Amino acid sequence: MTLAFTCRISGPDLLCRLTVDRAMNAPVLCCSGMAPLTVTEGGERLFALGSYIEVQLPDLASGQTHDFVLAYEGGYKPANRAWMPMGAYLRTDDGCLPLPALSLGPRPEVIPDGPPHDGLGLLPEPQSWTPSGGVVVAHGFSVSDPGFAAVDALAGRLGLGPFLSQTGLPVVLQDSDLPDEAYHLDITTDQVILSSGSASSRFYGAISLLMVLRTHQGRLPCGRIEDAPRFGWRGQHLDCARHFYDPRSIHDLLDLMALLKLNRFHWHFADDEAFRLEIDCLPELWQKTALRGEGHLIPAVFSGGVEAGGSYSKSDAAALVAHGRELFIEIMPEIEVPAHALALAKVFPEVLDPDDTGTERSVQGYPHNVTNPAMPTTWEVLTALATEVGALFPFGVLHLGGDELPEDTWMGSARTRDLMDGEGLSTTHDLQGWTMARLAETLVVNGQRPAAWEEAARGCNGGIGHGAILFSWTGQGPGIAAARAGYDVVMTPAQHVYLDMAATDDPDDWGANWAAYVSLADTIAWDPVPADAPELAPRIAGVQGCFWSEFTSQDVQMWPMLLPRMLGVSAKAWQTGAMPVERLYALARLFMGLDALPVKRALGAA
Fold first, then answer.
1. Which of 164, 374, 560, 587: disulfide with 123, CB 3.0–4.6 Å?
2. Does residue 375 share a domain with residue 281?
């Protein structure tokens, strides 16, 4: 007999059944969920922190089955398999016993059947494609250029090679005055002419040749491609705080981004649950929070299990930066200010006012997860963090966070009230804007540009200021307002490009649903520049997809969530104008048919 653990969704409840293989004296079940949990039958809640819960169970005899009921607090209802208890284990007199995982993870979204794509097999689609008739058979390309060499190496890693060959179709490189990242390709029966004005332009021209070579199975259609991106910021975000991804997995993600012409990686390694970068200025921060679970400072929140986690060394960061540079991808790190700071506050409690009488909690259910700007230690810590982290990433843009500050934060702190009176501030939002602006000034002095989530625009002083880039995530509205206020904005609305959302409302699907159900079709069903506000176009810097990892326990679970929906993010970030969903589906079927490593992983084949 072995330990058995099952669970099923019944309305708002999770009906759980545990069968034990030995006698146990009052075992405690520990697990995490998508949001804060409670137990309504069959046990007693001993402790909870955010989505983590410890449930006291009765004495159990060997072979005994025990039923208990968990429920989500705050009106949340489990939507699908991702809402099952995660990382469950039993704490017993004999130690901790992991329980079987309840679900194997996500499956890729099914792309509807339809007619085959009868045009150019290139995604994102180019600005224009003018076929001249005929095809040229090619098994690769012959050219000497660093950008082509980088694409050749990329093709090898993805399983899409060979790309370069001494006997391949010749490529002639021509200099032109085209803008950065723009290129022209003339494909004829005896050669390819690539016109470009920069190294990034040649790289993207080579990427297009690689994709066309594979989608057309070596029979390239002859004609002219004229192409340039709509936006300079074409991003993908990855949450490595809730789940620690092996550095190799992040390198693989950069490879997929390059294939889809995405050029900004938003690296989210700091949050309530962990700080994962091995910095020198505050070593206790990563040393005490990199691992979560039994006996650690942070318990097994978000599928941590008995113990899980890891940290990224400076050499890991440097290797990632170098890999990105080879692929014309810049890396923007993020630290969290002032909220999402539970881990930081547990390591450095001096960032909190010990006399604060406030009872506010974050939307994730955490108390005391906001640094207090009236405490001197707060500024010592934040300034040190921003300075060292910012210096590790040559892109020169540091994301300061600024999101999901609980309502009425700091209002129970007399020290904060004194600060607010001295600065002429009245509300939590005013103080938030003041705090973000003060830290942003440090970045500017250090030669860096600040970035933050949309909430950083709040406050009577106009918010963070200092030329910050704001990321609009709850929808387009806040981004439009920020653009009108003079901010540069990256559009990342959760209803369209949050790839941790489930694609459908099927209970057998996988993912969150607080914003929407986000299908491949939804990723293109919007315009980053609203039709009724064309004057804002200069302020819309780009588009970015996000992937949050609250319910991710294995790296491979990322791929079916990213693909095929990253194809829509790529199209929306690169292309100008609307794209019919039928054409996106046809191109997605072509792409997902490639024998490429990310596709294999998304389909569960590698």
1. 587
2. yes
- Could you list the residue range(s) of the whole structural domain that residue 10 is in? 4-98
Pair (408, 292) in one structural domain = yes
Q: What's the pLDDT tens digit per position in 148-195?
A: 999 999 999 999 999 999 999 999 999 999 999 999 999 999 999 999
Per the domain annotation, does 78 fall within a domain?
yes
Are residues 210 and 246 both part of a single domain?
Answer: no
SS (H, E, C) 72-97: ECCCCCCCCHHHCCEEEEEEECCEEE
Q: pLDDT by residue (tens digit) across 96-124?
A: 999 998 888 899 999 999 998 889 999 99
Q: Are 476 and 493 in contact (CB under 8 A)?
A: yes
Q: CA torsion sign, 554 to 560 to 563 to 565?
A: negative
Residue type, 343: A
The tokens describing 544, both together, are 């970015």
Nearest CA among 118, 132, 151 for reference residue 225: 132
State whether 71 and 141 are in the same domain.
no
Cα gap 412→38, rounded to integer Å = 27
Tokens describing residue 605: 């084949």
Give the H/E segment covering residue 472: strand 469-472
> 31: domain CATH number?
2.60.40.290
Question: Between helices 247-259 and 199-215, what is the axis angle to 10°?
Answer: 90
Helix or strand (DSSP H, E) at 441: helix 428-445
* Amino acid found at 560: P
Residue 60 carries which DSSP code?
B
Question: Could you identify the residue written with the tokens 């980053």?
Answer: 528
Please choose, from the candidates 547, 602, 561, the residue with its C-alpha nearest in 3D space to the C-alpha of residue 242.
547
Same domain? For 346 and 458 the reply is: yes
- How many domains, in total, are found in the chain? 3
With a cut of 70, list the residues of the chain below it in pLDDT.
Answer: 1, 605-606
Residue 108 lies in a domain: no
Residues 218 and 244 in one domain: no
Q: Is residue 592 part of a domain?
A: no
Over the Cα atoms of the chain, what is R_g? 25
| Euclidean distance between CA atoms 459 and 49, whole angstroms | 30
Q: Which of 189, 205, 227 is the last residue of a domain?
A: 227
Are 44 and 83 members of one domain? yes
Domain for residue 365, yes or no?
Answer: yes
The residue from 227, 245, 272 where one domain ends is 227
CATH code for the domain in which residue 304 is found = 3.20.20.80
| Pairs from 276-280 (Cβ < 8 Å, separation ≥ 24) | 276/240, 276/241, 276/244, 276/309, 276/310, 276/311, 276/312, 277/311, 277/312, 277/314, 277/317, 277/333, 277/389, 277/392, 278/311, 278/312, 278/313, 278/314, 279/314, 279/385, 279/388, 279/389, 280/388
**Pick from 95, 453, 107, 102: which is nearest to 271 by CA?**
453
Q: Which residue has the tokens 């992040």?
A: 250
91 and 68 part of one domain: yes
**pLDDT value at residue 606:** 57
Model-level pTM? 0.98
